[in-house]
Specification:
The protein is 14% helix and 42% strand. The chain is mainly beta. Strands 1-2 form a two-stranded antiparallel sheet. The chain is globular, with a radius of gyration of 12 Å.
């Protein structure tokens, strides 16, 4: 399974910015200890 991470832009819009593989549950995702600094997005 995988997880797609997105930034919520508005109530009906989200912009995907990352896809993480080998995520079986929310606990697996939390165990990665990801923060905003893990994702450097340049404009």
């Amino acid at each position: 399974m995988s997880a797609e991470l997105a930034c919520v832009a508005s109530q009906n819009d989200a912009n995907a910015f990352a896809n993480i593989t080998n995520v079986q549950s929310v606990n697996d995702l939390a165990a990665l200890h990801l923060t905003g600094s893990n994702f450097l997005i340049s404009a």
